[in-house]
């Protein structure tokens, strides 16, 4: 299994496991895991501090895994390292790792911008925000910009967002900034920062111009929406206008998830535009597991 990545050269803390198997085992036996707060003190005791380090190491390993997996998959594909056992790379990904070639392709398309951002040293503490925020969803949202204008253009845009918004950056915000970025400024740092500022201001203007909703009306609207938007209704809307419906659904899910404190990452399949399919991960466990970012942890590490 791959090593856990320490962004910024931070040392491995005492007792911190350094590979995925150890990360899971270090948390302890399933029957002995804590199910409630261990002490009544506001500060964590030594036992709790140690457990938190181990838990966050496991989560961090998952968040970085897509980068290592995509890079490794590209090497296997381009060097045809699968050839002794498999005829094609597609056969290799499905038989060896139980992931679709489409998802393997997505991992390959995201790793370069992820690596560039994780290795960036913009100063002012921005690298710390990048290391704690960047994940598969953010990197995937940058892919269209990477493939159109290069990795550096995507790096400039993401750092501009982080500089302006800090920890409030979301995958939807990244996607919106990419779509709003004028082609003429892509790849130019100062111009990109100006364009990002204009984009963020436009969002703020929209928010300010929206009148405060009546709480009672809002409650009734949510109740009505819960009754109206069943699976068949949403599917019909997707078939009628896939792009507009997908955008509306994404916005609705993001608002509801932010209120409930649930983190949602949207994955867009290659056939989305044609079939109107919308899937969310990693919290969407109903979808095929091979289409969620967690599967990057099962792919080969660099």
Overview of this protein structure:
With 302 residues, the protein is mainly alpha-helical. It contains 13 helices and 2 strands, in the order ααααααααααααβαβ. The chain has a two-stranded antiparallel sheet with strand order 1-2. Helix 2 crosses helix 4, helix 4 crosses helix 6 and helix 11 packs across helix 12. The longest helix is centred in the N-terminal third of the chain and has 33 residues. It is globular and about 55 Å long. It starts with 19 loop residues before the first helix and ends in a 21-residue tail after the last strand. The N terminus and C terminus are likely disordered.
Residue windows where pLDDT falls under 50 for at least 5 positions:
1-17, 270-302
* Cα radius of gyration in angstroms: 21 Å
Helix count equals: 13
Mean pLDDT: 78
Biggest sheet character: 2 strands, antiparallel
Residues in helices, as a percent range: 55-70%
Main structural class: mainly alpha
């Amino acid at each position: 299994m791959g090593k856990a990545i320490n962004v910024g050269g931070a040392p491995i803390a005492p007792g911190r496991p350094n590979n995925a198997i150890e990360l899971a085992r270090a948390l302890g036996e399933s029957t002995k895991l804590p199910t409630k707060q261990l002490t009544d003190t506001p500060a964590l005791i030594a036992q709790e501090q140690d457990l938190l380090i181990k838990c966050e190491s496991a989560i961090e390993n998952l968040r970085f895994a897509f980068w290592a997996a995509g890079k490794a998959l590209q090497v296997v594909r381009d060097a045809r390292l699968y050839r002794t056992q498999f005829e094609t790379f597609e056969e290799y990904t499905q038989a060896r790792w139980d992931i679709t070639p489409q998802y393997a392709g997505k991992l390959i398309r995201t790793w370069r911008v992820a690596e560039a951002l994780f290795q960036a040293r913009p100063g002012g503490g921005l690298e710390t925000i990048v290391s704690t925020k960047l994940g598969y969803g953010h990197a995937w949202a940058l892919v269209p910009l990477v493939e159109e204008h290069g990795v550096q253009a995507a790096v400039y845009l993401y750092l501009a967002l982080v500089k302006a918004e800090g920890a409030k950056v979301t995958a939807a915000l990244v996607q919106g900034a990419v779509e709003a970025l004028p082609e003429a400024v892509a790849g130019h740092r100062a111009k990109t920062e100006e364009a990002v500022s204009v984009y963020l201001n436009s969002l703020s203007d929209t928010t300010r111009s929206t009148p405060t909703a009546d709480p009672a009306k809002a409650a009734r609207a949510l109740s009505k929406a819960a009754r109206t938007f069943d699976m068949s209704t949403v599917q019909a809307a997707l078939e009628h206008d896939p792009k507009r419906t997908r955008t509306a659904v994404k916005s609705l899910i993001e608002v509801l998830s932010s209120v409930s404190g649930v983190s949602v990452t949207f994955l867009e399949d290659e056939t989305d535009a044609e079939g109107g399919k919308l899937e969310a991960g990693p919290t969407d466990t109903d979808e095929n597991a091979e289409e969620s970012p967690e599967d990057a942890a099962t792919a080969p590490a660099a």
